[in-house]
């Protein structure tokens, strides 16, 4: 019931491996984001020269040192803040049992969580191990071109594909994960590489990877843990060589780190990796990273902040942040027990988008494919619906900045974004609920004599308005049902406001 089969691992990497990877000089791409008052302003590449960075004497290029006081000064590449929307893909051996909180299935089973133990007792013979699921991870219907088309239709501008989750199985032919990777057992193909190629050949999206630093039951990790992190065999021989390999082979522009919370970043050698990534890697100019690099680092250090899954603070943050969330409540991987009300509706997604982007964040929407490589029609439908909404309202989202107000001071469920062109600022009011009456009161917006108000996607006349003592009153015309531009979250475009 709790048998614990550990897949055979290659441990032939020498103690010089990390230093060798770091010393290799490989070419490449860069950029920035800073906060001014309540807003973020992205700018072209102009790294901030702090006391803990090194400026090369002949090139003038900044080199970052492996310490947070230096690494945290690196500007965030502009593309990431402008993108606003990404797709997360959780896929692995856990997609075979696909039971409840799927990505943690192995750990839940081994630690005796009753539902998981009973599931195994009823459905699998005695002596069945977690590794026995791997040959059933077949991916026979996996079509990376189809996936790329679906993801592009959502309006997302980047994807984050799980290269390795906490189970340790790699979705690429890692040399450091013998017989526990997608080429050796299961699909018999490079799942990650095939998707990277499809994304780059068929879309304008950026390709990124998720990578778990730790592994549930890797014996090298457990040995280091037992030694209170005084030894680093797992880091030197397994997890860091994987990260360097991922970057050099696939050139991802997002590194979404996870599995960091048990050990400090000095154990993980995270800062050394990030210094190499920012200084010498093939994606040094364009890569973005998150904040999960060691115990105590989350929400403090790294690139953008994730803080915790589903982070949605409701106010502007001092640094760029991301809200990673699931389209199917309760599970990152495919869950066979999911019911219709488990899946978020379009209105749920547009609400999360408005709340997130108005406060300066990005939204990372997760899908969990099946073990045989299918994206369920309900996932595809939600993504395409979201993409249709973005086609109408994208100007309020892509490249937008938080306004002076994030939500309205009088009418609830109204969130604001803004776009600046020269000296002019256009404000977008995202209405999560269509007004019940023909007048909409906006307390945060003060009009000028030149103010215009229009509904994105509506081809009728501009809306009439009147200034009030508490802001402005917008006249909502009677719009025929078949003329409404979308089914959820309507966006008013306000120009020439006085505040």
UniProtKB/TrEMBL annotation:
Which GO CC terms are listed, alphabetically?
Answer: lysosome
Query: What catalytic activity is recorded?
Result: a neolactoside IV(2)-alpha-Fuc-nLc4Cer(d18:0) + H2O = a neolactoside nLc4Cer(d18:0) + L-fucose; a neolactoside IV(2)-alpha-Fuc-nLc4Cer(d18:1(4E)) + H2O = a neolactoside nLc4Cer(d18:1(4E)) + L-fucose
The molecular function terms of the Gene Ontology recorded here are:
alpha-L-fucosidase activity
Q: Which UniProt keywords apply?
A: Glycoprotein, Glycosidase, Hydrolase, Signal
InterPro entries, per database record: FUC_metazoa-typ, Fucosidase_C, GH, Glyco_hydro_29, Glyco_hydro_29_N, Glyco_hydro_b
Domain Alpha-L-fucosidase C-terminal, chain residue ranges per copy: 406-495
Judged by the first EC level, this protein's enzyme class is: hydrolase
EC annotation from Swiss-Prot or TrEMBL: 3.2.1.51
Q: Which family does it belong to?
A: Belongs to the glycosyl hydrolase 29 family.
Q: What is this protein called?
A: alpha-L-fucosidase
**What is the species of this protein?**
Capitella teleta (Polychaete worm)
Q: Recite the lineage of the species.
A: Eukaryota, Metazoa, Spiralia, Lophotrochozoa, Annelida
């Amino acid at each position: 019931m709790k048998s614990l089969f550990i897949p055979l691992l290659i441990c032939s990497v020498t103690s010089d491996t990390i230093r060798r990877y770091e010393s290799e000089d490989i070419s490449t791409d860069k950029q920035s984001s800073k906060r001014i008052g309540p807003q973020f302003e992205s700018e072209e590449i102009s790294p901030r020269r702090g006391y803990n960075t090194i400026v090369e004497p002949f090139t003038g290029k900044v080199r970052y040192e492996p310490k947070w006081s230096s690494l945290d000064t690196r500007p965030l590449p502009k593309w990431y803040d402008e993108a606003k929307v990404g797709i997360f893909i959780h896929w692995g051996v856990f997609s075979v049992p696909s039971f409840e909180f799927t990505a943690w299935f192995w750990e839940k089973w081994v630690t005796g969580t009753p539902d998981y133990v009973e599931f195994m007792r009823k459905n699998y013979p005695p002596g069945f191990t977690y590794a026995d699921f791997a040959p059933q991870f077949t991916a026979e219907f996996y079509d990376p071109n189809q996936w790329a088309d679906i993801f592009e239709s959502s309006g997302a501008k980047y994807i984050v594909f799980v290269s390795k989750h906490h189970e340790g199985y790699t979705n690429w032919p890692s040399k450091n994960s013998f017989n526990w990777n997608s080429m050796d057992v299961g699909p018999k193909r490079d799942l990650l590489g095939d998707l990277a190629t499809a994304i780059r050949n068929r879309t304008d999206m950026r390709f990124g990877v998720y990578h778990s630093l730790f592994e549930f039951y890797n014996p090298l990790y457990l040995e280091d843990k037992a030694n209170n992190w005084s030894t680093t065999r797992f880091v030197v021989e397994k997890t860091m060589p994987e990260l360097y390999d991922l970057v050099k082979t696939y050139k991802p522009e997002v590194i979404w780190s996870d599995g960091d919370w048990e050990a400090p970043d000095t154990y993980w050698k995270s800062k050394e990796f990030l210094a190499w990534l920012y200084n010498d890697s093939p994606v040094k100019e364009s890569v973005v990273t998150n904040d999960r690099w060691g115990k105590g680092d989350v929400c403090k250090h790294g690139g953008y902040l994730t803080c915790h899954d589903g982070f949605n603070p409701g106010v502007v943050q001092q640094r760029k942040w991301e809200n990673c969330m699931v389209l199917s409540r309760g599970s990152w991987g495919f869950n066979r027990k999911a019911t219709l009300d488990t899946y978020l509706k379009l209105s749920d997604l547009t609400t999360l988008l408005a709340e997130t982007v108005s406060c300066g964040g990005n939204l990372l929407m997760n899908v969990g494919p099946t073990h045989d490589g299918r994206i369920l029609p309900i996932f595809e439908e939600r993504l395409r619906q979201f993409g249709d909404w973005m086609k109408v309202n994208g100007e309020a989202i892509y490249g937008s900045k938080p306004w002076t107000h994030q939500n309205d001071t009088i009418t609830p469920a109204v969130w604001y974004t803004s776009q600046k062109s020269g000296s002019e600022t256009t404000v977008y009011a995202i209405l999560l609920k269509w007004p019940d009456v023909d007048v909409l009161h906006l307390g945060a917006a003060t009009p000028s004599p030149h103010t215009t108000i229009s509904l994105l996607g509506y081809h009728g006349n501009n809306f009439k308005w009147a200034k009030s003592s508490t802001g402005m009153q917008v006249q909502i015309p009677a719009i025929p049902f078949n003329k409404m531009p979308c089914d959820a979250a309507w966006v008013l475009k306000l120009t020439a406001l006085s505040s």
